[in-house]
Design brief:
single chain; 73 residues
Length: 73
Amino acid sequence: MIMNEMRDLAPGAVTAATRRQRLDHRTRDLVNQAVASVPTLGLQRAAEFLATMNVPAEVAVRVLVYPHRRRAN
């Protein structure tokens, strides 16, 4: 995407062009496991699991607290 086109996007807008393809499948699998465990174990336990598995804190917060910000793949 050209820089001029990028400035026309609304603040915080994420498009397919600006989203990077996921390369870390291990983190993806850990996040999926933690998210699936939230209904039974709770948010705190899911967060502790991700921390124990060395998932970056910003990723853990994003997926657990802001589930609409999760990537599709």
